[in-house]
Amino acid sequence: MTGTQYQYIDGEWQTGQSDEQLAVRNPADPEEPIRTISQADRAQAASAVEAADAASKGWAAATPDERDAVLYDAADRIEDNVDDLAETLTHEEGKPLSSSRAEVSRAAEIFRFFASYARTATGDTVPSNDPGTFTYTFREPLGVVALVTPWNFPIATPSWKLATALVTGNAVVFKPSSETPTIAKRLVELLEAAGIPDGVVNLVIGPGSTVGDEVTTHERIDGISFTGSTGTGRHIAAAMAERGIPVQTEMGGKNPLVVLPDADLDAAADAVIAGAFGLTGQACTATSRLIVHEDVAEDVTDAVVDRAEALSIGPGMDDPDMGPAVSAGEDETNFDYVRIAKDEGAKLLTGGGRPDGLDSGYFIEPTVFGDVDPGMRIAQEEVFGPVLAILEVSDFDEAVDVASGVDFGLSASIYTADMALSRRFTEDIEAGVVKVNGTTTGSQIQLPFGGMKASSSEQKKEMGQRAYEFYTHEKVVYRTDP
Ligand code: NAD
Asked: What is the pTM of this model?
């Protein structure tokens, strides 16, 4: 297991300088902290930005083969350590071990995919109106980028930000969630072993309000890529608006899955279960609303309730269908929303309580509410837990209105055999990721990812063929013969 120094600044592991200690807990058994960590303070976070600033020119000048060598090597090292990394992830975040293994493998895939950018990311040559002038574009790194991440995909999300920022020649300050510091440290250790030069990757662990604030507002920061809640993302974006630096924010969701009468109802019910209860509902793309046509509402509801009741729940290390919520805060929010939904008049169809025999961790039964009205809080607000709201509609147009009738717009899905309606859905729905006959969760790294409305600043997409755009300036050159 890893040592007690969690701050990595200018190529050195350091002890956090704050007096406040961070107690890291296993959400399946939180009473005794797994470890206690010294957190960074503002001055230490500032020194991380300064180290990145000093290292940024050297890394920007590195050749494509120098950059991709580090990323390919990091990918190999992640793969070689899948078991150990997956256990670390499950201990801190709580998700089932097989989900952690899949996430770690994905992180390796991400580093490999983005490593290939080093030699292939290109500009354009464009025909010029002046015969003696050659016109083209090329890209340069932003400089120093702050990467701020949440806890729910604590190795995959940092990996796609780190890999894209590094391969395009930026130095970074990585500020992970305090819920999952050890998996973040392990990732940085592997990048160090892969040969990343001192100062190019810096890691600071501490509260968002001090350490996060310092790394995002420091004058030497040239860009910010943030994933997390809408409240925090908007706060960071507003604070940075005056400086005009690029800020990418990927935030919350309230994702709908629509079922029409001609759908494969079994497949739809399976997709609802995977989307609503996989990862304990703690995916930004989780299915939190099932919007079902009244003609099949009873059948689909019964199928969903039966499947929800059959899910196994337990500590992630036992690899159940569903693990605990990540923290006491999320646990409280889950039970708050059960109470709110009941008070609003929604009908509890299953779940809503602590599962038998699992009193010591942050566990909740897979929870399904029927008789939900589109205006209720349970139909509008992100719970970020395994709580599903079922809304009945009378036709396709009403389904789209209800599906889009929330502040968020991250992912959405429709189950139907009707080609014309599914195409209309892809056009009419307000969501950045649209699936037809697929789960609201899950994405492929070669495709762009991001939301609309309160789910995203829409400052370029993450992942996909053009994820490098956010991390680079594009220069346009007119070169005229003397
Ligand atoms: P959060 O907003 O509480 O925290 C995210 C990160 O921001 C953490 O590292 C935190 O320490 C930091 N932070 C907090 N305050 C800050 C400040 N003032 N300045 C700078 N940094 C600050 O979110 P969370 O609870 O960790 O994650 C859950 C949320 O993330 C959910 O809303 C979920 O939908 C969202 N999420 C979105 C996506 C996406 O791609 N759209 C993916 C995963 C999670």
From this structure: 0.97
